[in-house]
Amino acid sequence: MKYNPNEIEAKWQKYWAEHKTFAAQNNSDKPKHYVLDMFPYPSGAGLHVGHPLGYIASDVYSRYKRHQGFNVLHPMGYDSFGLPAEQYAIQTGQRPEDTTSVNIDGGLDKEGKEIAGYRKQLDKIGFSFDWDREVRTSNPDYYKHTQWIFIQLFNSWYNRNSDKAEDISTLTAVFSTEGNANINAVCDDAIEVFSANEWNAFAKEQQEKILLQYRLTYLAETEVNWCPGLGTVLANDEIVNGVSERGGYPVIRKKMTQWSMRISAYAERLLQGLNDIDWSESIKESQRNWIGKSVGAMVSFNVKEHQANIDVFTTRPDTIFGVTFMTLAPEHELVAQITTAEQKAEVEAYIEKTAKRSERERMADVKTISGVFTGAYAEHPFTKEPIPVWIGDYVLAGYGTGAVMAVPCGDERDYAFANFFKGQKGMPEIKNIFANVDISAAAYGSKDNVEIANSDFLNGLNYKEATKKIIEELEKINQGKGKINYRLRDAVFSRQRYWGEPFPVYYVNGLPQMIDAQHLPIILPEVEKYLPTEDGQPPLGNAKAWHWDTNKNEIVSVEDAANPPSGVWGLELNTMPGWAGSSWYWMRYMDAHNENEFASKEALKYWESVDLYIGGSEHATGHLLYSRFWNKFLKDKGFAPTEEPFKKLINQGMILGTSAFVYRISWMKITSPDADKPFDILDPKMPSFFITKSKYEKIVKGDEEEIAKAKKIYLDTLNSVFPNAGGIGLGGQLSMQLTPIHVDVSIVNSSDELDEVKFKSWREDYANSQFICEDNGKYIVGREVEKMSKSKYNVVTPDDICNEYGADTLRLYEMFLGPLEQAKPWNTAGISGVFGFLKKLCRLYFDENGLIVTNDEPTKDNLKSLHKTIKKVAEDIESFSFNTSVSQFMICVNELSAQNCHSRAILEPLAIVISPYAPHIAEELWSLLGNTGSIATVPFPVLVEKHLVESDKEYPVSFNGKMRFTMVLPLDLTKEQIEEIVMKDERTIKQLDGKTPNKVIIVPGKIINLVG
After folding, report:
1. Which long-range contacts (CB under 8 A, 24 or more apart) does 207-210 make?
2. pLDDT value at position 674?
3. What pTM was computed for the model?
């Protein structure tokens, strides 16, 4: 027999599928265990070896739990709506529904290229997923329930008194009997107070407008991150360094009417809930910072010469007498109202400039100081002194009230701002309100050892005393109160895109109405033009039939959209964001085929929540926060059984790829000696030049000889292509540019040599490339370890590894690379060692003639090797230390091979122990041993501690402190018995050479030393 992984793995994958080996039951006498992987995006042409890392870890754990007797739910599905899938479709010139289907199921893409498909790739790795529960967020039978949850949010408000979401009918009941004066709700700011009589007298439209101010999902004009390149609004976590994470497009701030989710209502519960879950401290801290709880006061400053006031939240109300100026966010609604005519042009120019920077970029940039004086003045609530009002981009409209009372003596950023604009109109001298503190060089930001001075009735008080006193005084004059504030903002819930869940919403006279749940799903229509538009017009505006007929309760086509028939209304043109479907998917897995509910009460009660969740840490303030929010809401409404969705969370580290770089060398013509920038003289007729690594490095260091050689090669080519271009290189008119460019690692060999022929055919624009090579004629690429990504062309596909070495080798190798939670580089060279281990494992069971397993009684050493492995693997899986388990397997197999062990009593349990990691070969060995059925649910071997007890000891035998040889002796021997054996040993006799030692030192179990 021979180990043939491809044959064995295909056989057992077919068996698992036919026998539904991994199907979980919604009713079982076994204890339940729910293991979940983060939803993958089917956004590109298949998997690379970095993707399965977390899946393999969760699969090892799931298989182990089945061996322990658990009813394990380990499902898989696809987050198939959203930007990633749509961007891939756009980049490849295809429709998102087509690319999504091909990327999941496999098949031919638009260009006839064979796409393996996520499903086939996952099956090839041998995951124990319950595929009967597969979900896809882009399927109507799934997003029907997403739409239903949206309706529940729309029909709910947050009651601070009960500290939970309640049906909107309980709110209207209070309105109709008491008005809203005593309502304690999470709602919009500046809500007007009305009586019960006024409410009952309001027209229906007016009532609906008021209710929108309370609903948990609502329409509002808000400052958003608008990305013209993507044609959509982005959440803060989708922006990196001021550009979109997806595609790297510029992002600007813009006011738009958007659907939003009132996640801020749950800020405190989201914060407190972190104490009850087993997550890493780094992820918890990320969420705590994102939620950003602050305790302080709200202070109101009247604006002079205006019927307006500026509300400020501050954590240091004790410093109110140190206010030197005020700063508003450039987007603050008062800016246009209070800016003077003299300052208007400067203010408007600054606002336009700021709109091009994202909130995240502004928060991160602590070095740049910029701002403009509005010309307006606020009034100090106690001294009545005028306070100049500025705008500055370090203040964010989305944080607090979008306004800061600047106290430079106590805040470094205010201090820097005041000093930067010192002496300018609208910037007074800094006030110092701290006794015995020098602020000539820096602000004093500490709350400790503070004694307030120059502050009227606060003089002589410390931080706590002054804070309490100032809040009391502010409340007396009705210009402030104590307040707890959160950084967490309501989440924008709209996309001006095509590929997303349609809202179950139509509009009557501009007001949103929900479609009754019985008519769901509202199915995404086909449109001819689905690309985003720079002006924000959503693609659904191109749909031929996209109106709701309230008479027929169906979607209809309207010839004249401006004048639809009676009872026919326009549907919402935006779609839901990518996080809509992923905010509740774990509950759908519990009852994936339920047509009437997202999951039955019985299924929800049985599975409760996810016991183990494995995924990337990059979702800390996005998916993981939104999921907790939706789960808490559904708990409030009596649907979710638990407050938190994920009991334990593990973040796997990424697998890094080894990228390859070629170095393009190009030349630019400078029109004159004082030209600011060169312009490219390259023409499509001119080839691209690429210089080999060593010569690139020399040129970077300024090697004049190499620069001259490269320049000559370029000019010779230029003059041959353009005979009239002579003299271009004279007088320093050429400027050199070097550009490292990622190249596909598949066209580079293990010696870092580029296949120049394949490179030229790799991309059309490189077809005429020329290479400046090493002296031996080889082009050597540069190498760098970085994130494995298709965009960096450094991916290794699992299919290639599985085809050559088998899935069990891939699984073991990925676990062997290092601790699960750490990033680790991929090195294909290590694969062969793991493959060799599996072949060595097989040789314990069979040789070229067949099975060699015996019924011989195992030796003590056999049992010790086995039970060491049982103990180590069980402990490692429970602690998620998968890499050290693989090491232990190798140690065990080496020991058993050295012991010439072929005993069934050892090899049968060994197959079970290794099966979570290498399930295919384990199944095959189990079957060869004469067992029927799958090894997957066979009980895990019981550890017998007595087999681990050491009965012998290898003693070092020393003479005058120098070890000369070792001997193995039973541990139960006395000192006298050990001495007798040692003295009779031929090696001792030879070492003593007839002499008698002065002393024999023996410590049983440790040392033997003969002295003198």
Report:
1. 207/172, 208/511, 209/511
2. 44
3. 0.85
